Amino acid sequence: MTIKASHTVWAAVIALALAFVFVRSGFDFEYVIPKRLERLATMVIGGICVAWSAITFQSLTGNRILTPAIMGYEAVYLLFQTLLMLMLGTHSLMVLGEHGNAALSILLMLGYSWTLHRWLFRDDRDNVYFLLLVGLVLTMVITTFTQFVQLKMSPGEFSILMGYSQATFGNANATQLLYATLIVATICLVGLKSLPMLDVLLLGREQAISLGIDYRRCVQRQLFLIAALVAVSTSLLGPTAFMGIFVANTAYALAGTYRHRVTLPLGCAIAIALFILAQLLVEHLFNYTTTVGILVNLVCGAYFLSLMVRKRGAA
Amino acid sequence: MITVQDLHKTYGDRSVLSAVNLCFPSGQLTSLVGPNGAGKTTLLMMLARLLKPTRGDIRLDGSQVTRIPISEYAKQVATLRQTPEFNLRLTVEELVAFGRFPYSRGTLTRHDHRVIDDALSFLSLTTLRGAYLHELSGGQRQMAFLAMTIAQQTDYLLLDEPLNNLDIKHAVQIMQALRRLCDEHGRTVILVVHDINFAANYSDYIVAMKDGAVHCDGNVSDVITERRLSELYGLKFDIAHNERGYLCNYFKPSGNLE
Ligand SMILES: Nc1ncnc2c1ncn2[C@@H]1O[C@H](COP(=O)(O)OP(=O)(O)OP(=O)(O)O)[C@@H](O)[C@H]1O
Ligand SMILES: [Mg+2]
Q1: Which PROSITE patterns does the entry link to (chain B) (predicted)?
Q2: Partner of A39 for a Cys bridge, out of A11, A169, B174, B187, CB 3.0 to 4.6 A?
Q3: Is B44 in the same domain as B93?
C-alpha cells in the first residue's frame, strides 16, 4: 500500500512535469522550454519546502491543522514588501536589483525567526504551546500593521503588491534557483539524519525525553530548518499560507504509517504534483484568469474532503 | 542506586515538594504512596528528568543526573507517565519498538526485534501485537506502554500509576511482572500506586508522602501500620497480616470523615 501509493504519486509528478514542459510548447528549445524549466524548478523546490516544513512543523507541535505560517514568517515577508513599495514605490525592483529583494527577504525572515526562537527558548522554556501563542499574536500584529500601511498606497502600487501575496512561479530566475537549490539540498541532507528523531517527537515531549532526546535542542534545530525552508519558498514563489495542511494530511492518509521516512518524501511529491497541476490549469484552461493559489486550495480541498469521506473512521 | 538530597520544587511561591531526602534501594521494588496532590508525580518526574528541581540533588549511582547526557540516561532509566496519551495511529508492536530508540536510533537490529518480542511476551501481549492502540481498551493500552518501557532494558523503571485502568487480574499480573523484573532481572522499580494493598503486598520499600514531604519511609512492616496509615490518609485502618500477606481494610469507616 505504502510503496504503491508513493510510486503512483511520483509517476504522476513525472507525467505532469512532462506535460507541463512540452504541451503546446511548439518544441521551442530557445525560449519557451527553458522558461518552462525554470518554472518547473521553482515548483519542485517550492513543493519540497512547503511539504517538508509543514510536516515537520506538525510533528513538532503535535498538531495536524497547523503550518509554519502561524509563526509569522510569511507575515514578515509581506510587511517587508509593503514597506518597500511604500518607500521606493514601483521602482523598488530597480533599486534593489534583480536578486536584492529575494536575498533581503530571506535574510529578514531568518533574522526574525532567529530572534523569535532565541527569545522563546531563553532560560528553560520549551513549551510548544507558548511558542504557537506568541507566533499567532505576532502574525496578527504584523498583518494588521501591514494592512495599515497598505491603506496609504496608490491603487497601482497596491495591485502590484497583491501579486506578492499569492503563490506564483514566474518570478524566479536561474541564479536565484541555483542558490535556492543549494540551500534546500543542504537542509534536506541535514534533516534526513533526524527523521527517526521526528518519529519519536510524535509521542510528545515527555516520552521523547524519556527515550533520550534532547528535546529543547532538537526542537530549536528543527524550527531553524523550517524557518529556512519557508524563507526560501516564500522568496521564490510567495506565501503559500495553509496549503501545507492539505499536503501533509493527504500524505499521512496515503502513507498509512507515521514514519517520516515515508511521509516526508510522499508529501513533497504531492506538493509538487499539485503545483504543476494548478499551473497547467492556469496556463491552458483558464488562460491566466485565475491564480495558482486559488486553484491549489480548490484542488486540495476537494481531494482532501473526498479522502475523508472515503476513509471515514480509518484516518 | 538513586539518591535524592534536599530536593525542593516550587511553582511561583507555592511549594509543592520540600526537603525530600531519600535513597531508593537497588534491585528492589519501591512504592510511592499518599493522597492526591501529595507530590508523588512531581518527585517521580524529577527523577525522570522531565521536571527540573528548584533546589537539591539527584544522583544515579553516585553521579549527578544533570551531568549525564540525556541520551545515556535513557539507557539507564525508563519512565512511564501517569496518562500517556496521543492521537497517533500506531500498532502495539510499533509502540514497543520505540522503546529501542535509545539504542537503535531508529534502525532496528535483529537483537532489537528479539527484545521487542520478549517484552511483548513478558506481558502476554503477543496476540495483540498487530492491534492499533486506539482500538484497545484503556487497560490494554496501559500494558502496551509498560511493554515499551520494559523494552528499553534499563536498570531503573519509574512508573506513575501503572495500575491505572486495569482490572484486578491485570493489576495482579502487572505487579507480578514487576516483581519478576526485580527478582529475576535485578531491575530497580519505583512506582506510584494508590491501592495500598498492592503496595503492602508487593513492595520491598515504601515511601509515604503527604503535603509535599516524606511522611514516613521504610520497609513494609514499618510503614504499613494502622497508626501510620491513619495519619497519612485521615482514615481508620484495620490491618490483618497473615502468611498470604497484608490486608488493609479502610472501606467502611465508622462515623463521618473529617
Ligand atoms: N505545573 C504546576 N503548577 C503548579 N502546581 C502544580 C503543577 N504541577 C503540580 N502542581 C501541584 O503540585 C502538587 C503535587 O502534584 P503531584 O502531581 O505531584 O501530586 P500526586 O501526588 O502525583 O497526586 P495524584 O495522586 O493525584 O497523582 C499538587 O498540589 C499540584 O496542584
Ligand atoms: Mg500523580
Answers
A1: ABC_TRANSPORTER_1, ABC_TRANSPORTER_2
A2: A169
A3: no
